[in-house]
Design brief:
two-stranded antiparallel ribbon; single chain; binds 2-acetamido-2-deoxy-beta-D-glucopyranose
Length: 273
């Protein structure tokens, strides 16, 4: 299970999100950004910009209470306030990797992080993202090699498939899950979701690819999502997890975290967790 949390700046907490025993539950702190407060790129030096309520102590507390909880930091995201965050090819990729590694090492310790998620959403036109796969792949490899993290996930969407396919092709051995943002594909029925899933399964690895749901958002909504999960299973795909965006939306939805509860129930019903 994957749940993004902290992107809106609203005072969300881990405490209210239902976490079932027997589920590998990943909270994804949104976001750590290679930018200063004004949104200027810092050559690989990441800073945490998730909701201030998600403190190191609160991470420690939820992990102490639920031993099946893992916490990841997602890199980049769409924007820092109104400034859109873009991938840029650094002039010295090795220095970028080294800066990124050093800047993530300390929050990884402070926040007791288990991993990182990659969520760059905006790339330069003219295909000038030639160092993306190298920089991100090397960064994950180094963080894992030095035992700073144990989990790495990536979050492509339809407009960013190309750079993420490149990254996955070269570094899939260090990438554990693909949090494809199916809701951006805006498929509205289980059958069309299945067709979409088949396409993404060819681009990435079907066993690492997780179906995803945006609470009060785009794409399929309501119980049709769970009909989709069953349909995927009927067509031979193992549903090895579910990604939900986001705890912020769920906490505002006043539906008692319906999608988090039912997704975990679905996963516990299947034997794939
Ligand atoms: C993209 O990269 C090419 C070759 O490295 C360069 O000539 C071109 O100016 C770059 N374009 C942009 C928009 O940065
Ligand atoms: C880290 O990399 C070194 C050198 O390639 C290798 O010998 C070692 O086994 C790696 N350690 C881990 C934990 O992957
Ligand atoms: C889980 O299994 C129970 C018992 O078969 C069933 O009633 C329930 O609807 C299932 N839940 C989901 C989300 O599939």
């Amino acid at each position: 299970m994957m749940e993004y949390i902290g992107a809106t700046g609203a005072p969300v907490t881990f405490d209210l999100v239902p976490v079932e025993e027997g589920i590998d539950f990943h909270f994804i702190l949104s976001f750590a950004i290679d930018a200063d407060l004004s949104g200027n790129a810092q050559n690989g030096k990441f800073s945490p910009y998730w909701a201030e309520t998600l403190t190191p102590d609160s991470v420690a507390a939820i992990k102490a209470r639920r031993s099946n909880v893992k916490v990841l930091a997602s890199l980049a995201g769409w924007s820092l306030r109104d400034k859109v965050i873009r991938w840029y090819d650094p002039t010295d990729p090795h220095l970028w990797v080294s800066n990124a590694f050093s800047s993530l090492k300390s929050p990884a310790t402070t926040y007791h992080l288990d991993g990182i998620d990659i969520d760059y959403e905006k790339f330069p036109t003219q295909r000038n993202y030639t160092t993306f796969a190298f920089c991100i792949g090397q960064l994950i490899t180094l963080l894992k090699n030095q035992s700073v993290i144990s989990v790495a996930t990536i979050a492509p969407y339809h407009l960013t498939a190309v750079p993420y396919i490149e990254l996955f092709k070269d570094y899939n051995n260090v990438i554990d899950y693909v949090n494809h943002q199916f809701y951006t594909d805006k498929v509205l029925t289980p059958l069309r979701y299945l067709e979409d899933f088949k396409i993404r399964a060819l681009q990435f690895d079907k066993n690492k690819l997780l179906p995803s749901y945006e609470v009060n958002g785009r794409g399929i909504q309501g119980d049709e999502f769970f009909a989709t999960l069953s349909l995927l299973e009927q067509h031979g795909f193992e549903v090895n997890g579910v990604m939900i965006f986001s705890a912020d939306a769920s906490s505002a939805a006043a539906n008692n975290y319906y999608y988090e509860r039912k997704s975990q129930e679905f996963l516990l019903n299947t034997t794939n967790v």
